[in-house]
UniProtKB/TrEMBL annotation:
One of its GO terms (cellular component) is mitochondrial outer membrane. It is found in: Mitochondrion outer membrane. The gene is CPT1C. It comes from Gopherus evgoodei (Goodes thornscrub tortoise). Coiled coil: none annotated. This is carnitine O-palmitoyltransferase. Pathway: Lipid metabolism; fatty acid beta-oxidation.
Length: 757
């Protein structure tokens, strides 16, 4: 095998004439370059850690301070008021004691300033008053706050520079959480049911609640974030149901443009762009997220380490990976990413992928549907992994998949706006990204990049390791780099030179016994039943967008959320518990919090719309203001659901039962919503390239009788929706709900008497 020959650095034979030693200089050179690259990365990580550790100060500031102290000593001035003399007398010997004492004092003073600046910045970042102010009209308090933040925030921050300065997520008071919970449930419950729930809440607030709160407060003092580790463990990793549809989410390609129809070429450019993003992360070259008007970080930064779930579920993070795993036509391949110490270019990657596409070798028995183990329930996969993949070829091949930078599927189908019904084609495209054929994505990997036969691409991401905004950041960079930086030749091929000496892809070898194949088929049947039950509708709303909504002097997100409430009431004739994801990235290791978008105020507005009441516009403004208040509370760490969730976890650790918490966590989310934010507007010039817009992404329904809705606000005139539900439910229909969303948006616009474009 070619890959085996490449791995041999030397050979020797023993003969009557002696030992014949033959060294492979090419292989030894590769060994040397690999070691050199590894040490360069270690040095870069060490340097970044040192710079980040002393931020908002810098090594240059220490040199300036040391020089100033030494200069004052030479001028017979003592800025330390005698402290330098005490340091030299107590700890330093006679030679050069004065200079060393001055350096020691300068270092101590510098460290004190670093700690003071970091503490001051952390205290400043606890201020959230700017969130309630009108955009572009900050109060005097906010202006002063911005000025102080700019003073203490330092210059030229690296990606992780502000992590130690972010405040910890606060634990809300029990009373506030219970009161806000009851307020959110009032429009959804009958009078008798609400009285029962309120009695449970008051009893919890005065009996068991304070005891659970004490433990939670203790954790918040000790842990970096009192929610994130339990949320990752119990919401994501402890679940035994399939990840596919239930947890993983997807991202789409450009809506109207496919830069090249060549599958291997598109894969080459996109893989190279992803690796460039990874290099930026490793070097901390990305600019941290910012607060309005000031360059400070806001929360959990992106990460792109090789990550995979390993059943029984735990997350396996690795520092680096020199290869990716590729799936095509039922076969698995290992593709190296480096040659001669250099990252493979797009043209070289294209050649590697073309070799896989042209490879006629059939899959081994059981190999074609092997990935269905990651699509089905977790327990059969955990048992099969331990029984059949613990040694030999299967273990080696599984390691190659799990330790890959990411997983790439060269899909055999075509997707996009194809055929006489482009709307239906977009629905098929969404389902192809969400679940595919249930055996052609490795759902345990951090993400699977999917390149279809006609050059269309997409992404399927595992949820436990990163939320959608993190993957959205990566995806925006990848799409922009693919088209506007790397580009393609006039023939559709990747640009660049081709090195013919690069070793070919390595086909992974599997020996799957009949018993394991039966387990695989069981997982495939369960996954296929789940996938077939998903009803999806993806559509672009083009009548108006953010530009017109801003003329209504309201938040675009509040506008859309109220439209969703109106659409849902018209669709089902009732209100439901509504989940809207909000980010808590203002806090260290923050992830998400829930905005309960169905409020008393939103219900009053919806009833007014259906009853033709005269106060529609006034009720709309009240409901929109309420939604913004709820959203701000969630972002500021004063949400309801993460606090109640953590209280429930504490109760389980203590072995006590709470009827109130049990009822809270058993309520179904009939409408689960999420906005996909566009975070890097500087990458896309939508005015000059209006066709280069992404359709965003989506997820499966959370409740068997409910809807999942993802939306993305693109530019000034477009909003794209992804609606999911289940065919098996008699209460839902994705296309019917999509039609209700369109009508609701137009009805809200009519409230303001604004003309369509």
């Amino acid at each position: 095998m070619a890959e085996a020959h490449q791995a041999v650095a030397f050979q020797f034979t023993v003969s009557p004439e002696g030992v014949d030693l033959r060294l492979s200089h090419a292989a030894l050179k590769q060994v040397y370059l690999a070691g050199l690259r590894s040490w360069k990365k270690k040095i870069t990580r060490l340097r970044n850690s040192l710079v980040t550790g002393m931020f908002p100060a810098s090594p240059a500031s220490w040199l300036v301070m040391a020089a100033a102290i030494l200069a004052s000593q030479a001028s017979r001035l003592d800025p330390s008021m005698g402290l330098i003399g005490k340091i030299t007398d107590a700890y330093l010997s006679e030679p050069a004691r004065a200079g060393l004492g001055a350096l020691a004092f300068a270092t101590l003073l510098w460290l004190g300033l670093v700690v003071t600046m970091r503490g001051a910045l952390r205290a400043l970042l606890c201020y959230h008053g700017w969130m309630g102010e009108e955009h572009g009209r900050p109060s005097h308090a906010t202006k002063c706050w911005l000025a102080l933040v700019k003073i203490f925030a330092g210059r030229r921050p690296m990606l992780y520079s502000y992590q130690a300065s972010l405040p910890r997520l606060p634990v809300p008071p029990i009373r506030d959480t219970v009161q806000r919970y009851l307020e959110s449930m009032r429009p959804l419950l009958s009078d008798s049911h609400f009285q029962h729930t309120a009695a449970l809440g008051r009893d919890f607030e005065h009996s068991l609640g304070p005891r659970l709160q004490w433990y939670l407060t203790l954790k918040s003092w000790w842990a970096t974030n009192y929610v994130s580790d339990w949320w990752e463990e119990y919401v994501y990793l402890r679940g035994r149901g399939p990840l596919m549809v239930n947890s993983n989410y997807y991202a789409m390609d450009f809506l109207y443009v496919t830069p090249t129809p060549l599958q291997a070429a598109r894969a080459g450019n996109v893989v190279h762009a992803l690796l460039l993003y990874r290099r930026l992360l490793n070097r901390e070259g990305l600019v941290p997220g910012v607060l309005p008007g000031v360059g400070t970080a806001k929360g959990r930064p992106p990460r792109l380490a090789p990550t995979s779930r390993s059943p029984p579920d735990s997350l396996q993070h690795r520092q680096d990976s020199r290869h990716i795993a590729v799936f095509h036509a039922g076969r698995f391949f290992r593709v190296g990413l480096y040659h001669g110490g250099q990252l493979l270019g797009p043209r070289e990657l294209q050649a590697q992928f073309q070799r896989i596409l042209d490879d006629p070798v059939p899959p081994a028995p059981g190999e074609e549907t092997l990935a269905a183990l990651t699509a089905g329930p977790r327990e059969p996969w955990a048992r099969a992994r331990q029984t059949y993949f613990g040694s030999g070829r299967n273990q080696e091949s599984l390691r190659a998949v799990e330790r890959a930078a990411f997983f790439l599927t060269l899909d055999t189908t075509e997707q996009g706006l194809l055929g006489p019904e482009p709307g239906r084609a977009l629905d098929r495209y969404a389902k192809a990204l969400l679940h595919g054929q249930c055996h052609d994505r490795w759902f345990d990997k951090s993400f699977t990049l999917i390149v279809f036969r006609n050059g269309k691409i997409g992404l399927n991401a595992e949820h436990s390791w990163a939320d959608a905004p993190i993957m959205g950041h990566l995806w925006e960079y990848t799409l922009a780099t693919d088209v506007f930086q790397l580009g393609y030749g006039v023939d559709g091929h990747c640009k660049g030179e081709l090195d013919p000496s690069i070793p070919p892809p390595q086909k992974l070898q599997w020996e799957i016994p009949e018993e394991c194949r039966q387990v695989i088929q069981g997982s495939l049947r369960a996954a296929q039943a789940l996938a077939d039950d998903v009803d999806f509708h993806t559509f672009a709303f083009k009548d108006f967008g953010k530009g017109l909504i801003k003329k209504c002097r309201t938040s675009p997100d509040s506008f859309i959320q109220l439209a969703l409430q109106l659409a849902h009431f018209r669709d089902k004739g009732k209100f439901c518990l509504t989940y809207e994801a909000a980010m808590t990235r203002l806090f260290r290791e923050g992830r998400t919090e829930t905005v309960r978008s169905c409020s008393i105020e939103s219900c009053n507005f919806v009833r007014a719309m259906t009853d033709s009441a005269a106060q529609r516009l006034a009720l709309f403004r009240v409901a929109a203001a309420k939604h913004q208040t709820l959203y701000r509370r969630a972002m500021m760490g004063a949400g309801i659901d993460r606090h109640l969730f953590c209280l429930y976890v504490v109760s389980k650790y203590l072995g006590v039962d709470s009827p109130f918490l049990r009822e809270v966590l058993s309520e179904p989310w009939g409408l689960s919503t999420s906005q996909t934010p566009i975070q890097q507007l500087e990458l896309f010039d939508l005015k000059n390239h209006p066709d280069y817009i992404s359709c965003g992404g989506g997820f499966g329904p959370v409740d068997n009788n409910g809807y999942g809705v993802s939306y993305i606000i693109i530019g000034e005139d477009l909003i794209t929706f992804h609606v999911s539900c289940k065919f098996s439910s008699t209460e839902t229909d994705a296309h019917r709900f999509g039609a209700n969303i369109r009508t609701a948006l137009l009805d809200l616009r009519a409230l303001f008497n604004l003309p369509l474009k």
